[in-house]
């Protein structure tokens, strides 16, 4: 039967067809075989036009009138030839352009109808389902993209602290298979330093900074966010979280912080150099500054005058003497940097220069196994050594001036002013310590004869020879002075009473052969030595000490010269 023009136009059910045309009944009229079908029902005749359709097929009919698509036309051809076909999904777009917006989607079945004279199209509108699926896929992809952008890997741990899940790409150089089942705490550099362990905490943890070791053994810094997992019975059974590797960021920050720190250290040393006028104090302050700044366990700054090394400033632990000797030997040979490592630490020394000439060294000791010096620390030392070299040069000049002002230019011994200053300080520092100390007053015998018979040059030589004997016969910490003319003094701290006379006699016995001349029987140089043994106490003054020692010396002079006399506390002693 034919469908009315109104029915064709509206694609809606019409009145029941004439019974004699029952083979062509409209399929969608009330009571028809597909009137209750929940989707789109369309009958398409051989010329491709819609014979009838229900309300749900409105978009599908527009699609057919527009000419359909290649996939649809192939399926329709199959239906006309007696074979069922499907188009899943059939996409209906706003325009024929394949890139245009999708208006609807159908799962479409095409069935042969009326002996191939028509095709029955049954369509299930899957637009919402497809949109939901697409939205889900998109949200999953968005979540995955966000997860990948925000972290390097996600994970789960079980109640025993083992990884039970890791994202497919794995992490820290491990594959997902390698890291799954691994003890989470085994990755931590030091679990004891953590305030919160994000792999096993029972409270949410937001961006906890944790240092771990990767598959190569290198330390990596992770920013970890995690949350605990609880069962319905409120039993904790692990944690879930994700990690972001911020090692490079932290290294850049640490490098920048170290650069700022080194600049502050350098500026601090410059400030010390400018504000401290006394070179030895400046060098001491610089050494103190380097201990926490680098940091190191020991610092020694030494001055080199071309022959002798002299430690000017020492801070921290005492450096081994054999190590110092190796450093000095290497730098003396022209090396600018010396380094030696051992199981206990590493020693580094750099030479200092002034106008191209080596004038000292900075020696640094860092304790610990496998410790290293960074390139930045090396750069800081290079900058510091220039300033230290200038300060050491100033120290050398200052020391030379002190030497000139405090020593006797002929013999190199202390002069009277310096000797008395040192002795005065000693009395203050050792007041009441109970130890006995010996002051010797020496006067050369027959010195006038040498000057008169041989001249002042020979007399000066005799004075220098006299001084050399005194140096050889005294201890390193004893003080020797030329008081003037042929008068000398020696201060020997911490001398027991029973040793006082023997020490004075040993000096006298060494002087006799050193000053003798066989070719001149008149040449009888010797020494009258007076000694005073005392303890430092309140009221002790230098004038009294010299007075008692001088009286003891003159007692020797009066008794025939070339002898010793040692007294203790107001001339209560023994002589010879």
From TrEMBL:
Q: Which Pfam families match?
A: GGDEF
Entry EC no(s)? 2.7.7.65
Q: Where is the GGDEF domain?
A: 435-569
Catalytic activity annotated for this protein? 2 GTP = 3',3'-c-di-GMP + 2 diphosphate
Instruction: Tell me the protein's name.
Output: diguanylate cyclase
């Amino acid at each position: 039967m034919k469908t009315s023009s109104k029915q064709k136009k509206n694609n809606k059910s019409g009145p029941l067809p004439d019974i004699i045309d029952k083979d062509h009944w409209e399929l969608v009229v009330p009571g028809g075989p597909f009137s209750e079908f929940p989707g789109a029902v369309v009958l398409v005749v051989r010329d491709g036009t819609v014979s009838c359709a229900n309300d749900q097929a409105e978009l599908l009919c527009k699609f057919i009138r527009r000419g359909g698509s290649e996939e649809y036309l192939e399926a329709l051809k199959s239906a006309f030839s007696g074979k069922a076909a499907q188009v899943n999904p059939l996409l209906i777009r706003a325009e024929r352009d394949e890139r245009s917006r999708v208006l609807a989607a159908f799962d479409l079945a095409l069935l042969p109808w009326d002996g191939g004279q028509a095709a029955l199209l049954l369509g299930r509108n899957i637009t919402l389902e497809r949109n939901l699926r697409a939205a889900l896929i998109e949200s999953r992809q968005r979540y995955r993209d966000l997860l990948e952008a925000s972290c390097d890997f996600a994970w789960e741990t079980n109640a025993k602290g083992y990884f039970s899940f890791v994202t497919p790409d794995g992490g820290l150089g491990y594959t997902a298979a390698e890291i799954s089942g691994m003890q989470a705490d085994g990755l931590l550099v030091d679990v004891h330093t953590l305030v919160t362990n994000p792999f096993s905490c029972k409270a949410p943890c937001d961006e906890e900074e944790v240092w771990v070791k990767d598959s190569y053994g290198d330390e990596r810094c992770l920013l970890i966010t995690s949350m605990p997992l609880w069962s319905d019975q409120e039993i904790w059974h692990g944690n879930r979280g994700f990690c972001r590797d911020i090692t490079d960021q932290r290294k850049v920050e640490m490098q920048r912080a170290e650069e700022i720190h080194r600049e502050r250290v350098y500026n601090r040393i410059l400030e010390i150099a400018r504000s401290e006028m006394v070179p030895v104090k400046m060098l001491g302050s610089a050494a103190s500054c380097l201990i926490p700044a680098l940091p190191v366990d020991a610092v020694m700054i030494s001055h080199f005058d071309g022959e002798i090394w002299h430690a000017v400033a020492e801070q921290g632990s005492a450096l081994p003497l054999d190590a110092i000797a190796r450093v000095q030997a290497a730098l003396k040979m022209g090396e600018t940097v010396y380094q030696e490592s051992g199981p206990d630490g590493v020693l580094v020394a750099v030479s200092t220069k002034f106008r191209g000439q080596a004038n000292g060294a900075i020696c640094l000791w860092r304790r610990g196994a496998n410790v290293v010096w960074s390139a930045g620390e090396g750069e800081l030392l290079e900058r510091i050594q220039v300033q230290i070299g200038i300060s050491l040069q100033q120290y050398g000049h200052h020391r030379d001036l002190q030497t000139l002002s405090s020593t006797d230019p002929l013999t190199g011994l202390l002069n009277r002013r310096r000797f008395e200053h040192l002795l005065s300080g000693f009395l203050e520092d050792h007041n009441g310590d109970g130890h006995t100390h010996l002051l010797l007053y020496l006067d050369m015998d027959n010195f006038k004869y040498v000057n008169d018979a041989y001249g002042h040059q020979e007399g000066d030589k005799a004075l220098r020879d006299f001084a050399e004997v005194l140096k050889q016969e005294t201890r390193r910490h004893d003080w020797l002075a030329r008081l003037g003319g042929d008068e000398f003094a020696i201060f020997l701290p911490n001398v027991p009473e029973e040793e006082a006379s023997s020490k004075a006699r040993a000096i006298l016995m060494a002087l006799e052969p050193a000053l003798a001349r066989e070719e001149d029987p008149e040449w009888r140089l010797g020494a009258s030595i007076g000694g005073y043994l005392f303890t430092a106490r309140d009221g002790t003054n230098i004038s009294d000490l010299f007075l008692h020692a001088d009286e003891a010396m003159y007692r020797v002079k009066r008794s025939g010269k070339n002898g010793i006399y040692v007294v203790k506390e107001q001339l209560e002693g023994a002589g010879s």
